[in-house]
Amino acid sequence: MLNRDTLLEAYKLMVTAKAMSDTFEANQQVCKYEHSTSRGHEAIQIATGMQLLQCDWVSPYYRDDSMLLSLGFTAEELMLQLLAKKDDIFSAGRSYYCHPSNKDGIRPSIIHQSTAAGIQAIPTTGLAQGIQFLENSHSALLKKGADGESPVVVCSLGDGSVTEGEVSEAISYAVLKKLPIVYLVQDNQWSISASADETRASDAYEYTAGFKGLKRLQCDGSDFLRSYETMQQAIGHARLERKPVLVHAKVPLLGHHTNGVRKEFYRDREDLLKHGLYDPLPKMRLLLNGSGYDEHEINNAEADAQRIVAESFQKAIAAAEPDVKTVEDHVFAPTTITDEKGDRSPKIGEKVMMVEAALHAIEEIMEDHEEAILYGQDVGRRLGGVYRETANLAERFGDSRVFNMPVQEAYIVGSTVGLSAMGVKPIVQVQYGDYIYPAFNQLVSEISKSSYLTNGKFPVGMVLRVPVGAYNGGGPYHSGSIESTLLSVKGIKVAYPSNAADMKGIMKAAFYDPNPVVVLEHKGLYWSKVAGTDDAKSIEPSRDYILPLGKGNVVLAAETDKVKKGASICIITYGMGVYWAKAAAKKFPGQIEIIDLRSLYPLDEALIFEASSKHGKVIVLSEEQQNNSFAEALSLRISNNCYYFLDAKVEVVGALNLPAVPMNMHLEAAMLPTVDKVIQRIDKLLKY
């Protein structure tokens, strides 16, 4: 409630933020890491933070230190992150100033964000999506306020970031589904050194007029009273009506863009003076005078804030640096799935195809876990996936748990960050590997870094299914192999099953893993329609069967006498490569050992190195274009670790280095590895 005491508290927070900014500026050699401050934005930020409850979620952006102060974080806590110290409660010295994360249960919760230049809108909208799901399913996972208040989400953005396409995806989905979220846009007329006139045809308020159902509000964000009233209306609407709101707050930019990008580099004197006229602090001081506070009281409040900031800064300087031994901590959350369990081949089981095994695995997961949801393009009612890989799941579990999505790959993937934080377990699908690239920003910038940069607070538990691979003239946008692209990203796991039993076991392991797992599913193996892939069908494993990630499998062993004579070869492969290798091996009875990796990260290096050392001759076989690929990287790793046991250099067999898979089936075959090409390479190695 806004009263006289609230005004004084807000002023204390304002002068605290200013004192922090002044301190950082006066100590540039100490405050050497990149940072921004909220000078000019204090009023709207504090008006927002003061009205949020413990049950709420907020995503501040990189200039929101005033908001963080108003949420209850101390100057010292913020400074420990500024100086990248060990006791930084947000990231343990790993992330920038004002890149917070919180799940202490005392203050509003905050998920990881990257640089918060627009793309944070998708994970944050995923939070609101999660809240709505938990509300509709009456889940005990939903946390309410002390007086039963429903939680809301606030996503803070600079106006320049609204031109980012992912902001539109987020707002579009929030409006479509009527999600309880407030988008707070702070408009200071600058995007680093580019002025508003250079970068936009309209501001955020005007731009979002076409989003039907979005409540829009504007205010002078340098005026605390107007800001408080506007945010009270916005948060109240989201909390009671459970619908999205956008607040466009005009604010001055009084500080530098960052400590490294100085305002004098790109702003003239006239612009700086114009912004200075809207400084929130003199306005707030006049408001206090009008509310009955005398100069002595105001000066004392200011002096107290400056003293606390000075003391906090000295403590932060003296605080310990992180232990370098912790640098690899929290890349992943620990998984409990470490052993193969259940019956892989029940005696009374029936043979199923890979697509059926995946379907049954998800069906069993959703029966056992109410928090499991499945969404993507065309996976819901009516079609059930373009390969019928989700057939009838919507009919069984309802449209709230299995549903279609707009053509928004970035939102499909990035929303899992927020959903996971809410305790929901999303299984999502991108229609083809070639379509994953619009989602890559979210996968790289948000999902993969979340656990590491929150010091383990927010690993993203999600499963991303991606049909991949070429066969039967699928053409350039439905046939791509993307594993090397994915494996260049650290902080995600990548599985690649080649048969129905592995598919079911891996899908279960991926679901129970608390980390992001991408499951690559070769669409040519789904139905075993490709000649020679009948072995992709298998007896369906039991309901409790689970196959840990990172466990390879010897699918064909060489004869011992051939190994002893040095007349054997090890082929290391995955996916369709397993079947090329098995067909080629028929020409060399007893001489070929085939390892199916099943998981590309984590990778079963122990099995790979043991087999490579035993045989001395190794082929790494992949469907992917060969140059700069995972297969080539693996060949080097084998060479480095097994050098003294190798009889020849490790051979790599991959596809031709073309930008896409051509449509014509003869051209497709010319590009891809074939059984004959593998036979030729085996023959070459055996003659070495």
Structure commentary:
- There is one protein chain.
- The chain is 39% helix and 14% strand.
- Helix 2 (42-49) packs parallel to helix 9 and helix 4 packs parallel to helix 12 (295-318).
- The longest helix is centred in the middle third of the chain and has 24 residues, at 295-318.
- A 7-stranded mixed sheet has the order 10-9-11-12-14-13-19, sandwiched between helices. It has a 5-stranded parallel sheet with strand order 1-2-3-7-6, sandwiched between helices.
- By secondary structure, it is α/β, with parallel strands linked by helices.
Key terms:
21 strands; seven-stranded mixed beta sheet; 14% strand; 688 residues; elongated
Give a quick summary of the entry.
The protein is 39% helix and 14% strand. By secondary structure, it is α/β, with parallel strands linked by helices.
Rounded to the nearest angstrom, the radius of gyration is 29 Å
Spatial ordering of strands, largest sheet: 10-9-11-12-14-13-19
Strand content: 5-15%
**Main beta sheet: strand number and arrangement?**
7 strands, mixed
Structural category: alpha/beta
Task: Detail the topology: elements first, then pairings.
Layout lengths: L3 H23 L15 H8 L7 E3 L5 H7 L3 H8 L38 H16 L16 E6 L6 H13 L3 E7 L2 E2 L2 E2 H4 L4 H4 L7 E6 L3 H18 L3 E6 L18 H8 L3 H11 L4 H24 L32 E2 L1 H15 L3 E5 L16 H5 L4 E3 L4 H13 L3 E5 L10 H8 L2 H4 L8 E7 L14 H5 L5 E3 L4 H13 L3 E7 H4 L11 E2 L13 E4 L3 H5 L4 E5 L3 H9 L6 E5 L2 E3 L3 H11 L2 E8 L4 H13 L8 E5 L9 H7 L3 H12 L2
Parallel strand pairs: 1-2, 2-3, 3-7, 6-7, 9-10, 9-11, 11-12, 12-14, 13-14, 17-18, 17-20, 20-21
Antiparallel strand pairs: 4-5, 8-15, 13-19, 16-18
